[in-house]
Amino acid sequence: MSLAEFEPPEQQVAHFPAEGLSGEEVRERLRAHRAADVDWRSGRIWSLVYSAGPEHDDVVHDAYREFAAENLLGPTAFPSLATMEKQVVWMLLDLLGADPRTSGGTMTSGGTESMILAVKAYRDRARAERPEITDPEMVVPVTAHPAFLKAGELLGVRPVPVPVDHTFRADPSAFAAAISESTILGCASAPCFPYGVVDPIEDLGAIAASYGIGLHVDATIGGFVLPFARELGYEVPAFDFGVPGVTSISADMHKYGYGPKGSSTVLYRDRELRRYQFSAYTSWPGGILGSPTILGTRPGGAIAGAWAAIVYEGKAGYRAIFTEVMKATDRLHEGIRAIPELYVLGDPPVSVFAIASEQVDMMAVADRLESRGWWIDRQRDPDSIHLIVNPTHVPVVDEFLRDLGWAAGGAPPAGSTDGGAALYGVSARLDASTDVEAAVLDQLESRYDS
Q1: List-wise, which residues carry N6-(pyridoxal phosphate)lysine (predicted)?
Q2: Sign of dihedral through CA atoms 310, 315, 317, 319?
């Protein structure tokens, strides 16, 4: 039996096919699988996909295909990849104000890996320099990405939560109070994902330095857009290596760097800290293994595509991209201010923000927007919808604002529904009476088993 004979289509991968399909049949199947996907090219989704336009994407995808088979696990076999990785890191260090004589970093597969590696570096340095710490801790604002919590689980570093103030930024006093003799690092966001605001990095950096600990800044979203928005005249808080207390930064290529998925960076003010990120295994029969990141195999396409994105655009190209993005953001903010029921949470400096209301039910607003073909991310504390603006949204700003006004105007009063629990990256929510953690795990299982 061939793969083509499996029916219905969703069962076509349930058994290993006895015979394969032609290349054209495979492409047809891929297109069929995509039929139910959101139309991101038309700007209908406000997260997950970052695109700078067809011409840019073609350059990046061509670079990815050119190096799709190569593997940076073997840097001596593929010095081209080793060179491109170093150059991507050097270019990001330059953009973020590091001293090239002393700083360093590596590429990674994404922001989560970058943050896990940073926590590993601080943990292993503490093991070497502060062996009296047996239960290490890190100070983590509640708005920081859960990747820090995942790092803590994997590496045995206890996260100590820090509340935010009325501006949704980490409270410096609470941050200082959370530091103990077991603290090995503090964490901050530039910006945080939920509200798009930048933590008070200068204050947190000064506190961290006074206690002799490092401060890692998660700039996975902001690493590109914040520097260029500042160049364009927008008021951007200090967040990078220009702040003395900042000792490491994670910055994604595959978000606002417009590189391919699977490309990020972790960067260090002092490359001596980077050494603690690395792993070495010397007694394996297969040979001595040195590993700079979590992954063993390191896909060449992601590295080449990231390199191609930067050298294709240069500062002038990124400046033009973010001119478009920020103008669209300004139009959205202006349009939201004209809708009486709605407001933007906090004071986000760039193109990541959340819309809330004290008058209407925001979960119902999201439902109504989805009825008109928009994919909407929902959030809690407070109930809100989340937007990340990209060039794909420039042509649809006016349409979205019209639909947003319609959705708010017809939504029930705030608190009318049970609200439920919003799921990150999923256009859905869980019932308010649900055991949320168990329900999320059930949903993950069903994704693979049904």
Answers
A1: 255
A2: positive
**Strand extents, DSSP E, 171-257:** 183-189, 214-218, 248-252
Q: How far is CA 231 from CA 52, 190, 218, 236, 319, in A?
A: 19, 16, 21, 9, 8
For residue 388, how many C-alpha atoms fall within 13 Å in the half-sphere facing its CB? Answer: 21
Are 105 and 292 contacting, i.e. CB atoms less than 8 angstroms apart?
A: no
**What topology is assigned to 64-310 in CATH?**
Aspartate Aminotransferase; domain 2 (3.40.640)
CA distance 312 to 51: 14
Residue identified by tokens 């605001």 is: 197
Contacts with 399 (C-beta within 8 Å, 6 or more apart), sequence order:
none
- Dihedral sign, Cα of residue 253, residue 256, residue 259, residue 262: positive
Mean pLDDT by 10 residues, the chain (450 residues): 44 77 95 93 97 98 98 96 98 98 98 98 98 98 98 98 98 98 98 98 98 98 98 98 98 98 98 97 95 96 98 98 98 98 98 98 97 96 97 98 98 81 58 74 81
- Assigned CATH for 316-449: 3.90.1150.10
Pairing outcome for strands 214-218 and 289-291: unpaired
User: In terms of residues, how long is the chain?
Assistant: 450
pLDDT at 434: 67
* Helix 79-95 / helix 300-337 crossing angle, nearest 10 deg: 30
DSSP helix/strand/coil, 107: strand
The structure's pTM equals 0.93
- 345, 354 Cβ separation under 8 angstroms: yes
Question: Domains of the chain: which residue ranges?
Answer: 3-36, 64-310, 316-449
